[in-house]
């Protein structure tokens, strides 16, 4: 559908353009990736449960990414950057796992 | 999934036996953004179709895709860079080591020249010649100059791994930590060996070609033994210049001699003592002058 198509377009554009990530943004790229993955899997699960809503997806994706980057930035200022990064990655990872487990249950039962 | 954990009144939640697990439980149960469920209960697709624009969703997913591919590209691009940095660092370390070696050789040459010049100057007077002889004796004992002569060569090596650990025969052996497989010679063992050789009357001692001075430390760093801050690896060859017969007899009687014989028989540690007619021990690589001061008696 339109979302999958948009994802593919984004990936292809990135591969073709090969944009340079500015240096000040580079520490936050990994955390943004994990937050995006979390929002993505949440959306997938909602889709399989039949309760997907685009607005919620967009807001959750933006909020996750920005909040995660903010936490890491705050941590950098306070000197606990790497520890907070680990904490954020752990939490988001747990959520990803929970969502993937639910997706698996939906896929293989339905 | 179920939201009933977060919907329970807080008092009830804290009375549950697994209340301390609430963080993990919330993480797992709240993994799906509650916004989806709220939206579905409020009217679902009909409501959303009225207010949403497909462009927003499209932009969001395009950005997500862009993020992923950018991260992958950056990762691929950075790998050869990191590798090149590492190679550069390795090359720098090797260049530094070569420079150090070159400077050490030059240092040895200069020291020889200094010694020759000093000897020539001192030889001009009788007092000077006596001073020179005394200086040479002291330099030999301090480890400054190379020395040639008969003595003992003792080789110790770790036990081959798999050697069975027999019964501990001597109380001294129980002091040394023994590994379950392949008993290793420790820095303490080498220290005792060297001290026993000094006590037996050795004039000069070198471990694996490193001349020992009064300030040389034999210590362990991790698994390796450092002599004068230089790592030495097994087998350890300890060369002692002195009267071979006296050295051997007195060393065999010493505590260290008994210790090593016990280590050899009980743990398979290699311990060979050989007399040598002619050995050459190099001088110490660096010697710092310290001046002793008399301690005032109160």
Largest sheet of chain A: none
Oligomeric description of these chains: heterodimer
Largest sheet of chain B: 5 strands, antiparallel
Order of SSEs of chain B: HHHHHHHEHHEEEEEEHHE
Number of helices of chain A: 4
| Strand element count of chain B | 8
| SS strand fraction of chain B | 15-25%
Count of DSSP helices of chain B? 11
List unreliable stretches of 5+ residues of chain B. 163-180
Question: How would you characterize the overall build of this protein?
Answer:
- The complex is a heterodimer of chains A (110) and B (298).
- Chain A is an all-alpha fold and 110 residues long.
- Chain A contains four helices and no strands.
- The longest helix of chain A has 29 residues.
- With 298 residues, chain B is α+β, with helices and mostly antiparallel strands.
- In chain B, the strands form two sheets. Chain B has a five-stranded antiparallel sheet with strand order 3-2-7-1-8. A three-stranded antiparallel sheet of chain B has the order 4-5-6, with helices on one face.
- About 6% of the residues of chain B have low confidence.
- Classes of the chains: A mainly alpha (110), B alpha+beta (298).
- Chains A and B meet through α1, α2, α3 and α4 of A and α3, α4, α5 and α6 of B.
How would you summarize the topology of this molecule?
The complex is a heterodimer of chains A (110) and B (298).
Chain A: H1 2-17, H2 29-49, H3 54-78, H4 81-109
Chain B: H1 4-7, H2 10-15, H3 22-29, H4 34-42, H5 45-51, H6 54-122, H7 126-142, E1 147-157, H8 171-175, H9 187-200, E2 204-207, E3 210-211, E4 218-221, E5 224-227, E6 230-232, E7 236-241, H10 244-253, H11 255-267, E8 270-281
Antiparallel strand pairs in B: 1-7, 1-8, 2-3, 2-7, 4-5, 5-6
Helix pairs in contact in B: 6-7, 9-10, 9-11
Write a brief structural summary:
Chain A is built from four helices and no strands. Chain A has helices at residues 2-17, 29-49, 54-78, 81-109.
